[in-house]
Design a protein that fits this description.
The longest helix has 14 residues. This protein has a single domain, classed as Conserved Hypothetical Protein Mth637, Chain: A. Helices cover about 25% and strands about 35% of the residues. Strands 1, 2, 3, 4, 5 and 6 form a six-stranded mixed beta sheet that branches. By secondary structure, it is α+β, with helices and mostly antiparallel strands. It contains two helices and six strands, in the order E-E-E-E-H-E-E-H.
């Protein structure tokens, strides 16, 4: 099972459930989406959900975790929601390997 989906050529999609004001910036693992939807990456950030601060913190967290530039990560939908869909400008196979290297996928 994979959290990452292929977008168009050279990009990956990632579903994220973000918890702002989470006390620390961390990737917490995986959870099943609502109504049996695909898996979601759970993440928390210490930033508050105001003026895009939590979104910026999420992008910084994922950039560091996946070793990609911040500019290669974009929020496709869910800017004001906890449930977000991200586009990551990275080869889907390479991104899947990076995701697996976080040791959150069994």
């Amino acid at each position: 099972m994979s959290v990452a989906r292929s977008g168009s050529s050279g990009e990956s999609r990632l579903a994220v459930r973000l918890t702002p004001n989470g006390g620390r910036d961390a990737i917490d693992g995986l959870e099943r989406g609502p109504n049996g939807a695909p898996l979601l990456l759970r993440a928390r950030v210490s930033a508050p959900p105001e003026d895009g601060k939590a979104n910026k913190a999420l992008i910084a967290l994922l950039s560091k975790a996946f070793r990609v530039p911040k500019t290669s990560i974009a929020i496709v939908s869910g800017e004001t929601s906890r449930m977000k869909n991200l586009r990551i400008a990275a080869d889907p196979e390479v991104f899947a390997e990076k995701l697996a290297s976080l040791k959150i996928i069994s």
